[in-house]
Design brief:
One of its GO terms (cellular component) is nucleus. This is C2H2-type domain-containing protein. By secondary structure, the chain is mainly alpha-helical. Helices cover 43% and strands 10% of the residues. Among the domains are: 55 residues, Classic Zinc Finger (Double Stranded RNA Binding Domain, 2-Layer Sandwich); 43 residues, 2-Layer Sandwich (Double Stranded RNA Binding Domain), CATH 3.30.160; 62 residues, Classic Zinc Finger (Double Stranded RNA Binding Domain), CATH 3.30.160. It is built from eleven helices and 14 strands. The strands form seven sheets. It has a two-stranded antiparallel ribbon with strand order 1-2. Strands 3-4 form a two-stranded antiparallel ribbon. A two-stranded antiparallel ribbon has the order 5-6. A hairpin with a 6-residue loop joins strand 11 and strand 12.
Length: 273
């Protein structure tokens, strides 16, 4: 479902967050008693017996800690404690910069990157950097072609959890995001934001060459071709090229015998002032 808002990232990285918290706790205990323990058959070294006893659950998927409110189960008590805060609303870890509160230290640390601009996850393929592990993994899936998230309804596979969640809404009539101006509803927040520009007349995407503004980045991309002369869409029959796919479809009607539409029909919104 790669693209994605902090609540989703919390879901995707919950296990990592809790593991990190327990790792810090384990280290503190070790510094007090200095006791070490042997590793089990999986080959992992453990610093204390509690971790040794807990590790097999990662193989058995045992989840002995249940939430009394919603029934959701967790492998570790620390995971449950963090989850309970989603019901109570408790956010004991505030950001010193903006004051926003968070349910765990790890989530707070990730949030702080929005202020510092830190991007610790580097793609060795293209050099792009990411602030969050979840978005980094989604990005890497695009290079490898891996699509680990499958829709249980139709079987379609997607590269990210965010993409899966978005896709699953196509199987339902759910449109939870409502425009308060005209009451039209949408499946995605991005679609609602784009719709709102109809009411606000906001045009945040501006051409650096002529200054014309557009509501969508895709419209700006098409408009720029007027300046560059790029025409990436070609007719398979005669080779004539166009800068917009709609103009190509109109042109192809000449060859199919269907009455041609005015090719300038789709051009007016993209021409410069």
């Amino acid at each position: 479902m790669c693209g994605d808002p902090e609540p989703l990232q919390i879901i995707e990285e919950q296990e990592e967050i809790c593991s990190s918290q327990e790792g810090e706790h384990d280290h503190q205990l070790l510094s007090h008693n200095g006791k070490s323990f042997k590793r089990d058959t999986s080959g992992k070294d453990f610093v204390r017996s509690l971790v040794l006893n807990r590790h097999p659950r990662s193989h058995t998927h045992e989840k002995p800690h249940s939430c009394e409110t919603c029934g959701k189960s967790f492998r570790r008590s620390s995971e449950l404690n963090v989850h309970i805060r989603t019901h109570t609303g408790e956010k004991p870890y505030p950001c010193n910069t903006c004051g926003k509160g968070f349910i765990s230290v790890s989530i707070l640390k990730r949030h702080i990157r929005t202020h510092t601009g830190e991007k610790p996850f580097l793609c060795n393929t293209c050099g792009k950097k990411f602030s969050y592990k979840s978005t980094f993994i989604n990005h890497m899936n695009k290079h490898t072609g891996e699509k680990p998230h499958s829709c249980k309804t139709c079987g379609k596979s997607l590269s990210s959890r965010a993409g899966l969640l978005s896709h699953m809404k196509t199987h339902t009539s759910e449109k939870p995001y409502i425009c308060y101006t005209c009451e039209k509803s949408f499946r995605e927040t991005s679609a609602l934001r784009m719709h709102m520009r109809i009411h606000t007349e906001e045009k945040p995407f501006t051409c650096e060459t002529c200054g014309k503004g557009f509501k969508r980045n895709g419209d700006l991309t098409i408009h720029k071709r007027l300046h560059t002369g790029e025409k990436p869409y070609s007719c398979n029959t005669c080779g004539k090229r166009f800068y917009h796919p709609s103009n190509l479809r109109s042109h192809e009607r000449i060859h199919t015998g269907v009455q041609q539409l005015n090719e300038t029909k789709f051009d007016n919104s993209y021409v410069s002032n």
